[in-house]
Design brief:
It contains 4 helices and 2 strands. It is mostly helical. The protein has a single domain (about 5-75), classed as Arc Repressor Mutant, subunit A. The protein has a two-stranded antiparallel ribbon with strand order 1-2. α1 crosses α3 (about 40-50). The longest helix has 13 residues, at about 10-20.
Length: about 80
């Protein structure tokens, strides 16, 4: 099951852009970049869903894409 299908598409695109394109991959840098934009409670659900759906993992306090996560997100229109 891909939880992203049930979330706000704008929030998904914004979070994916910050993580995968702008390389804000630590908790601190991602939160700082998201605070600069309009607050959206969906952003935190998106991050959780990216983990639950197997797109992200943590390694040494940094978010890493799992497998071909970028390609899968591009194919789905999120990047």
């Amino acid at each position: 099951m891909d939880y992203l299908d049930y979330l706000n598409r704008g929030a998904i695109k914004r979070v994916c852009k910050e993580i995968f394109l702008n390389n804000n991959r630590t908790r601190k840098s991602l939160l700082t970049s998201l605070i600069g934009s309009k607050y959206d409670e969906h952003a935190f659900l998106v991050i959780d869903s990216l983990y639950s759906s197997g797109y992200l993992d943590f390694e040494n306090d940094e978010m890493i894409g799992v497998g071909n996560a970028i390609q899968k997100l591009e194919d789905r229109g999120y990047l």
